[in-house]
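Usage example:
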Amino acid sequence: DIQMTQSPSLLSASVGDRVTLSCKASQNIYKYLNWYQQKLGEAPKLLIYYTNSLQTGIPSRFSGSGSGTDYTLTISSLQPEDVATYFCQQYNSWPTFGAGTKLELK
Amino acid sequence: QVNLQESGPGIVKPSQPLSVTCSVTGYSITTSYYYWNWIRKFSGNKLEWMGYISYDSSIYYNPSLKSRISITRDTSKNQFFLQLNTVTTEDTAVYYCARHVSYDGYLFDYWGQGVMVTVSS
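Running the assembly step on the lines above writes:
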């Protein structure tokens, strides 16, 4: 199966900061990459699909990029409600997930 | 409004089967091209996709679980079910059900809140 590695595992940032989260696949996944946000006690929420497509209703401060094995989720201006754990997921083969990046406020 | 809700036993003894139900409201599980998945989250945040049952009852399992897993459905109740056999403490996790649509690939757009299942004697 395809292994997904996220970095960092914990990220502290201030309100208004530009934040970048990384996800690396163990092989080329041809942009078949989604990002989810999970807040404490809630179900995961789909943010970005196919690397850079914004899911309906998701604020435009979220964006995704990447290709091959390396992918990035960017929050252009961090808001307090963005505190959560973020997971990447590939679907070039049966789906596998990264272990998450926990984003907290500094 | 699509809503998925898991229900389960809470605690299961080792070597016993684990059974979890997903009740879907606001959307028929027989609607064309939609697939109904089980995903679990271990402590430490590792998520594992377990398998799905489709609108037309086709099934696909994660190869690592294939010998122990069964996913079925009851269309009259708009529910689908997970059974995992011969569990160990390593199967302790939060179990989620989630939906995806075939033509978009595995985009899980609706999830349940999850149910914690602990394997313990």
